[in-house]
Every structure is written in structure tokens, then in C-alpha cells.
Amino acid sequence: MVSGRWIAWAGLLSLLLVGACGDGGRPVWKTDAAKPAPVDGYLTPPRVLSARSGPTGIAISGLAAPGAPVRLGEPTGDMHPGQADSGGQWTIVVPPAAGLRLFGVAMIVEGQTVQAEGYVAVAPDGRTAMLRAGAGALVVSPASRRPLILALDFDRDGAAMISGIGTVGAEIGLRLDHTAAGGTTIDRQGRYSFALSRPITPATHELEMSGEGGETVVVVATDRPPALDRPFRAARLPNAWRIDWMTPGGGAQTTLLFDTPAPESR
Hints:
This protein is mainly beta. The N and C termini lie far apart (51 Å). The chain contains 1 helix and 22 strands. Strand 3 (47-54) and strand 4 form a beta hairpin. The strands form 5 sheets. Strands 5, 6, 8, 9, 10, 11 and 12 form a 7-stranded antiparallel β-sheet that branches. It has a 6-stranded antiparallel β-sheet with strand order 17-14-13-22-21-20, with no helix packed on it. The protein folds into 2 domains: 4-131, Immunoglobulin-like (Sandwich), CATH 2.60.40; 138-258, Immunoglobulins (Immunoglobulin-like, Sandwich), CATH 2.60.40.10.
């Protein structure tokens, strides 16, 4: 049975949401554009670039259309309003919390609500990622020369996406339990995200990403997403945050946000 809280969240989504990184310490999903702008009538959605934990809460910052009202919405129905400045930058401080939270992000431009391209997950320490239905998570992180695995997404059928950061233009390859499972070229943002070449089974797996700059290995348990009676469920694992969440289409997806060593900057 679907809970009343889920119904409230779904109603909020209909108004606010639908389903979005670098040199030095800049966020890896930050693009070359200084601010969202119309392209052939299309407004670039608002983006979250960072989250900083402080004594009064977590300051979530990002980009939107200059001067646009910006809102963060929680499954509880709580709204956190803000406004972008003349350069499109905005910051909204949300109260501290013991666990990981999910937010929907939207801006209002000339009476039109423009939604972000995903749900923003914010951990208590300020770690931030954009969760995207049917795609890999975009994790805010400093750049790294070594290829790092930042997130793994999978669904109940075992279809999986892996994402992270590394050297711009480098060819990288993934080995799943010592067998090749896909690869790609790191984009000009220093990011990668690609689908595994075969389904991932419910078990404990070793993921090894290698390429220019070195390699990274993580060990992960990939139990299937449970039936959800709420918008999301988050749990702290030894080496990751696990988020089981309901997509806008009503499906279930699991995102693992891995702990990582300090990135090796160029």
C-alpha cells in the first residue's frame, strides 16, 4: 500500500520536480556556462554545485536564471525558498539533520516552473549528488587525475550505471569481479558515466576502474531495491551511502555514493 507521505511527495513532484562536476577544487559537474540561459526557447534547469555543513545547517548553493526564485522541496512537504542573484548564484540554508536527505530543486522564470534534472541527495557532512532516473548519479567532487568511482546505480533487473571522475580525455575500463564490464572516455568536465555491459547480480562484487592516472577498487553489496512505501530510504554502509528511491515513473532505483580517498588533483 502506498503511504500518505508518498502521495504528498508525488503531489509535490507534480508542482516542483521531475527526475541535474573540473580543475582544482571546483565542483566536477560545473559546466562552462556561467549561468542558465535560454537556448532555442529552452531554459537550462537549475543546478546544485555544492553543499557545506555548518553550525546552523547545510548551505546548499547552485546556479539558476539571474534573479529567479529558487525552491528546495523535501518529501515531508517542507519548502526552503531562496533567490538567485544577478549572476544566477543562489544559496539556501536548510536545518541540520542526522541522516541523508533528498531535495527537489526548481526555479520560477516568468511564471514558468523549471525543474532540475534529478533529485539532490545531501549527506550530513555536505556530500552532494544529483540522482537521475535511469542514469548514473552526478556527484559533486574536486577533480582527480586518478579515475575514482563515485557512484553505482542499479535497478531491480540488475541494469547498472557507474560514474565518477578522472583525467579529461583518458580512456578508462571497468572490471567487475576481474572480468571486463565496459569502459568509456572521460569527458571535458572530468566526469564519466556509463552502463555496465552485463547485469549486476545481488551479491558482493569487486569493481575495479583503471586508466590513465592509476586505478581504484571498491567492494560493494548489490542487494536488489526493496519494495518502497515511501519516497526513499537511506542507510549508511561501511564504505558508502545507500539510497533506495522511487523514480518519477514509479520504479525503484538504488544509488550507492562511495566514500573516496582525497582526489589527486592535476
